[in-house]
Structure formats: structure tokens, C-alpha cells
Amino acid sequence: MLQEAQRQAAAVGATNISWVQDTAENISLAVAKFRLVSIGRAFHWMQRELVLERIYNLLTNDGGLAILKTYEDPWNSDHPWKKTAISVVKRWLGEQRRTGQAGKGLWQPLEVSHEEILANSPFLRQAKYEVKYQQSWTIDTYLGYLYSTAFCLPSFLGENREKFEADLRESLLSVEPSGKFSEELPITVLAAWKQF
Fold first, then answer.
1. What angle do the packed helices 80-93 and 161-175 form, to 10 degrees?
2. Which phi-psi region, left, alpha or beta, contains residue 100 (left: φ > 0; alpha: ψ -120 to 50)?
3. Looking at the chain, which runs of residues are DSSP E strands?
4. Are 41 and 186 a contacting pair, CB within 8 Å?
5. Tens of pLDDT, residues 42-62
6. pLDDT in the model for residue 22
7. Which pLDDT does position 130 carry in this prediction?
8. Could you tell me which of 8, 48, 54, 50 has the C-alpha nearest to residue 34?
9. How many Cβ atoms from other residues are within 10 Å of residue 188's Cβ?
10. 97 and 156 in contact (C-beta within 8 Å)?
């Protein structure tokens, strides 16, 4: 991800970026002070209470935090093409949704929501915003999405990767011959500030 970000920054001539490879739990207070910290769809992988404490200390007094959540859950989608994609994943990787532990772990819903974790954090002001956006996919971009998830990493497929990709392509084209898909997705932004 850092290499891709560096490539994109170089393409537009952005030279005022410092690149840091570290975990959110370990990032040092010596790195910098920030006015805004954003977390994409990764907060559930973190030691959330610890990360919020670290972020709080990394922010300037007028700083804030944005945690983005999307409800893009292909395992429970009503879209025929997503149901088809997940049926292909299940055909190759089994019925249970994998996660973590090199694919040996099984997905479980969070016991404590992000909202509850944030409510118990040191942040004084909090708000929740919801927006919707239109997402367009091709078979290749959706395959890239699947490979970025914890339930369908390419390493899980091993030597069957090409067969899986062919099966996915054929199955999705049988649902939508154009190979183009779109959907409206909701995004929730959990925002928090150090001050009122």
C-alpha cells in the first residue's frame, strides 16, 4: 500500500508527505502531531482502545479523528452478482467465512461496536454521519476487492488461483454479460474531536 501511495504521490508531484510503516498500536509520539487522523475499514483489526488513546495523544488540541465504516458485506448481499461471487468463493474455500490466522480463523461479529469503544474513549465530542455513494465494479476490480479481504486472500487458493479466477469470471458473466456491476453503498463516518 505504501508503494502504491508513493507511486501516486510521485505521479502528481506531491513531495510534502512523510511515509511511515508501522502499526497503529506502535506509532511513536515522536513521528508528528496531526490535526486529522482517518481510519478506513481497518479499525476492527486493531486494539481499538489502545489505538484511540495513541491517536488522542498524537492530535493537536484542535485535532480530530474520522473512522470510516462501510456496510459492503458480500456475504449477506441481496445483489444476484454478489451472491454469485460468494458462491464461487464458498465453492473453492468452503462454506465458512475465513479470517485471520492465515485463513484458519473464522469470522465473528464484533462483540463491542466501534461506537461503544469511541464513547468510552477520551475524545470529548463525537458525531456520526451517514452518506451513500455509487460504486461501480468490473470483474477485475471486484476480484481485486475479494483478494483484499480477510476471507479470500490469494494465498488461500494456492495453486488453484487461476481456476478460481476463471470460475469467478464465468459465473459473473452468466449473471451480467457486460461484466459491469454497480451498487449504492452506505458509509458511516464516526467523527471525534479532542475539544468541544
1. 160
2. left
3. 34-39, 59-70, 125-138, 180-193
4. no
5. 888 889 999 999 999 999 999
6. 87
7. 94
8. 54
9. 15
10. no
pLDDT tens sequence across 73-124: 888 888 999 999 999 999 999 998 887 655 566 667 778 889 999 999 999 8
pLDDT at 32: 80
What is the rounded CA–CA span in Å between residue 24 and residue 46?
7
Q: Please give the C-alpha separations between residue 102 and each of 73, 93, 105, 160, in angstroms, as whole numbers.
A: 21, 13, 7, 17
Task: Work out the angle at residue 77's Cα, subtended by the Cα atoms of residues 106 and 155, and round it to the nearest 5 degrees.
Answer: 40
Kind and range of the H or E element at 33? none
Contacts 24+ apart (CB under 8 A), 160-168: 160/92, 163/92, 164/88, 164/92, 167/88, 167/91, 167/92, 168/85, 168/88, 168/139, 168/143
Q: What is the mean pLDDT of residues 29-52?
A: 88
Report in angstroms the alpha-carbon separations of 74 from 67, 87, 90, 174, 189. 21, 10, 12, 18, 20
Average pLDDT over the chain, rounded to whole? 90
Task: Quote the cell numbers at residue 38.
Answer: 482517518
Task: Note whether 60 and 49 are within 8 A (CB).
Answer: no
Interhelix angle 80-93/139-148, rounded to 10 degrees, is 50
